[in-house]
Every structure is written in C-alpha cells, then in structure tokens.
Input
Amino acid sequence: MAKLVFRGEDVRVLFDHAKASKQHSPTFGMLCTAEYLKEGEKLEGEYAKSEQIDLAKVPAHLQLVKDAGAYLMSSGIPRLPGLPKDGKPAMNFVVYAKGFEEGCDWGMQQAALGGDDFVEPLTLDMFEPAMADKASKIWLNVSKNRISIGWEPGEGAPAKTPREKRVRPAYDSKELGRVNKEAGATTRAAWAFAGGTYKGVICEVTPVLVYQKVRRGIVVHERALLPDPVPAKGQIVAYVYPDDVNAKASFGAK
Output
C-alpha cells in the first residue's frame, strides 16, 4: 500500500474548483459506460468518443493521476490554470504527492503504485470531512483494490463531539471457559467492535451476551446490539458492525 500525502490548502483549491464547475472532464473509465452520453448517442465499441459525452452529466470529482509522478487535479471545465513553469503558463493546476513530484524516481514510483499509468476518479464526498476540518495535510492510502483518505485537522477546525461511551456488560469467566472448551477455540475471547465483520457459528446465547466462534477464537457480542432475530446455538451467522460504536450490527452474507 502506498501513502500519498498532499498539502491540504492546495487540495482545497482543486475541491472548490470542481464543486463550482458546471461541466467536468470524464476519466477513461467513464467513457466505457453509456451513463454520460449525450441524448441520442449510443455506445459503439468498448468506449465512447469524447464528442459523444455530455460534460454536464459527468459528476464533479478529483482525479488521482499516476504518470510522470502522482498528483491530484480537478475534473472541472474549463481547467484551472496552473503555475508558470520555465516562463510558460501551465495548462492545468495539479497537486503532487510529497515525494512523487514530476521526475521522481521511477523505480520507487513503480514499487508504490505499479508500472501502469492511471487516472482514478475520487468523489467530492470523499473529501468533504477533510474540507470541513480545514485539513492542513491530506493523505490517500492506495492499494490494488481500495483508496481511503485520512487527514490532519488544521487551525480553526470545529471541535469534535466525543462519542458516547458504552459500558460493556461483563462476561462470566467460568461461562467463557466452558464455551471455549466446548467450541474447541484456541485463542482468548475478544469483544466485537465497531467497523468489524464476524462470521462464524453461534456457540452460546444468554439474555445479555452472544458467544460466536470466529476462526480459532471466541467473539463476545452484546445482545442489545445484534439485529433480530438472534440466532440459536449452532447457526452460522455473519454480523457487520457500522463505524458508529453505538449503532446496531446488521446481518452480512451468510
């Protein structure tokens, strides 16, 4: 996984430009769908021609580009003018990731992001929380299958409201020992937590807790946070918890 770090104030310039623009430039991947075609146009072949695209239909986004470096740019049209370079005006304002500026080491870039060039669209919703926090630094964690965002709040960021703490009910050590033994678990028990997914067989159901064998260990769920109906002992169930520590789990793929 590569971590691409950008100056927050520069990303805000891109964000504001994309948000204010009425038309947007599609990525190559967007040319492969009929969603953005002009009225009466049909997709013939693998991708549409640029003149077939209704630029007003393309959603506002930022584009993560990897070619001679790695950078972000706005999708907005007309393009945001770039800073002069070698006495000549640049056609487009881009924000390079730290260490991935134009002319950076090709081997390092290939090891971090792969050998192929790409343009990946990132929705503005992805950046909204960082913008609200007046982020001084924004980073993208890039893997083969996922891009996630993180940021460092800047000066003047609104104060965070602490999340409500939840007091967990205590589980009985003797009961847990019996469940472990009967289930053949080899690792100690752990509480289910927010943002987690747990699939396994239900080992024990009490009025307050539910014990579930997940791989080699036991996960302890608070029954109040599980969706109805609570399964019986012996059933295989997948529980998916949202990021909100106080929110109920839901059923995942069984």
